[in-house]
Design goal:
3 strands, alpha+beta, single chain
């Protein structure tokens, strides 16, 4: 018997056992405040929901990351993410954050040509297995992307 057949057998046994029971438990309705936030960062979209009961004795926070499979790699994507964050900060009237996002966008747009040239140089250095030089170029890229 291979592992797959064993798994199917165990799975069908559990299905048989638990199919006899009905689980219709519903959570009681609780009064309180629910807050939801969402945004986009380097690794994709995210959503955060927080619940606090009226008396403050119960607090629950859920954080869900949407799109972990699609990290932002290109410079244009990073700029788009920053523009979305800028828009969110403006809507929330967080103008200090908005100014930081604006400055980062300008810096990335200004340095995009240099970064692309350094990335090409980095690719060549890695292909030639010149890892010490590649590490220095990588550090320059990270510094320009800040």
């Amino acid at each position: 018997m291979n592992k797959r057949d064993l798994f199917k057998m165990i799975n069908s046994t559990f299905d048989d056992i638990f199919s006899r029971y009905e689980y219709n438990y519903k959570l009681p309705k609780m009064d309180g405040e629910t807050k939801s936030e969402s945004g986009i960062d380097e690794t994709g979209q995210w959503s955060k929901t927080s619940y606090t009961s009226k008396d403050g004795s119960i607090t629950y926070t859920s954080f869900v990351r949407l799109g972990d499979d699609y990290p932002v790699n290109s410079k244009q994507d990073k700029i788009e993410v920053l523009k979305q964050e800028l828009q969110n900060a403006i809507e929330k009237q967080e103008f200090e954050k908005a100014a930081e996002f604006r400055d980062r966008i300008k810096l990335l747009e200004k340095n995009s040509q240099t970064i692309n040239e350094l990335k090409n140089e980095l690719r060549v250095l890695v292909e030639n297995q010149e890892f010490e030089k590649a590490a220095k170029v990588r550090d320059k890229i990270k510094e320009l992307e800040k």
